[in-house]
Amino acid sequence: MKYAAIADWAEENEHTVTFMCAQLGVCRQGYHRWRAHGPCQRERTDDELTEIIQKIHEELSGDPGVRRVWAELVVLGHRVSAKRVWRLMKAAGLQGRHPRAWKKTTTAGLRPIDAPDLIGQDFTAEQPDTRWCGDITYIKTVDGWVYTATVIDLNSRKVVGYAVADHMRTSLIVEALAAALVTRKPPSGVVFHSDYAEFCVKPRDRVLACAGGVV
Questions:
Q1: What is the DSSP-derived secondary structure letter of residue 193?
Q2: 10-residue block means of pLDDT along the chain (215 residues)?
Q3: Could you give all domains of the chain from N- to C-terminal order, each with its CATH number?
Q4: What residues does 153 pair with on adjacent strands?
């Protein structure tokens, strides 16, 4: 492939053969031998495969990557390794599109309420069960998106409550916080801070005095 590129550029007289061989890391004598004998069988096969790969890449939808192109070549009866397909696609400037597994998890309520920051961006705690922090994470599975709400003790960084569901409704966060209350039985006044709400928890009567949020 390098020798072929040098030959193409040499015909245009843009650079000398010596300069191009040095830049591409090949010897000038090898290039002249290649010119005398012509491309080897593997290089001719690479050229044929590249044409087929380009056609596959154009016909398949969604900008297929190496694995899809390689699978299509196998179906067509071409015995070739995936690594070789990757090399030829890279040389031809072909690249697959990999959509990012992303899901929006922060949605403002219809009537959002300003909540004071009781943590003050200080995500530490001198004593356990005095400051909790919560968040939602998500995982893409074959059956769809799965959401996990967690409650973490800022003193020990331990997950003290969590809940898993196929939705992000308020009940998911409530279940995670309820699990933390049952597990830890914290004293009155523990602060729960998160992106979606902030509470002062009073476990004696299980009343959540909302300091702001949409839960």
A1: E
A2: 69 77 83 72 80 88 82 88 87 74 57 69 88 87 85 92 88 90 88 65 39 30
A3: 2-91 (no CATH), 131-213 (3.30.160)
A4: 132, 158
